[in-house]
């Protein structure tokens, strides 16, 4: 309904309804198409990763279990974006409880993604810096335990962070159709430290160390010397497959930092207005677009992922004994 150039979210509640964000139809359609495409592509690609690692026994490795955790989180981001599409015009049509649940799920996904990135960094650090003890230190069971703890902590942290909003759902809404949450200053600082500053610092430090060791290994191989001056590299030489995995996952981490840092920088400056404004919307879209990039990186650098996709799309995965298919070559 239009009234003096104003369109309301709920026309029958003129006195209490929120106003829609008015923009040209062509612009709205373009935004919807872009976000819908990202949403479908993100959910589809990550679902392929989930099916691949879950189905094929040869892919049941500690590193791949971490990739599986990341893919699950990214898959839910793809579904999460569907609700974001509804929210672009500034109106929330799903009720107060779903509004809080929307933010809770988003918080859990974000926290679990960052936690998994930390675990991936630790995994690569041990594989490169201490390759002789890697099979002993990093086992599938330990990784599964760490992943479970990561998701459990994310769920508890997300629920605790928004507990006041769950108790009084409409307390912070100024009109019907609005979906905002409130976090007090202490909780905000704690969340920022635990979900951004500390994990990002750990990821950067570990990968800088990995980079130093990889460079030292390359120099050692080129000069045909057995000794390397760096402490980590004296514990053994990592396999070529481990080095390749470190480079691939390094790209994943760089993409992750490139997509998430702008969002957290905006958050630190306090300029984000709960999805209001084109700049905030762009930063948020970039933040979620990272979930679509990860499986693309796998497709480019992991032959096993490309091979598993062929099995899935050609329905060979439905054949008896497909779980034992040779997906990973010995040379990979």
Descriptive account of the structure:
It is a multi-pass membrane protein. It comes from Oreochromis aureus. The chain crosses the membrane at residues 29-53, 65-88, 100-122, 143-162, 196-215, 249-269, 281-301. Its main location: membrane. InterPro entries: GPCR_Rhodpsn, GPCR_Rhodpsn_7TM, TAAR. With 332 residues, the chain is mainly alpha-helical. It has one domain (20-324): Rhodopsin 7-helix transmembrane proteins (Rhopdopsin 7-helix transmembrane proteins). Helix content is 68%, strand content 1%. It has ten helices and two strands. The protein has helices at 25-55, 62-87, 95-129, 134-137, 140-161, 163-167, 185-223, 240-269, 278-301, 303-313; strands at residues 2-3, 6-7. Strands 1-2 form a two-stranded antiparallel ribbon. A hairpin with a 2-residue loop joins strand 1 (2-3) and strand 2. The radius of gyration is 23 Å and the shape is globular. The N and C termini lie far apart (60 Å). Mean pLDDT is 78; it is low at 225-231 and 272-277.
